Amino acid sequence: MAEEVIEAYFKPGGPLANITNAANVKKSLELMEQAQRGSDAC
Question: pTM here?
Answer without folding.
Answer: 0.40
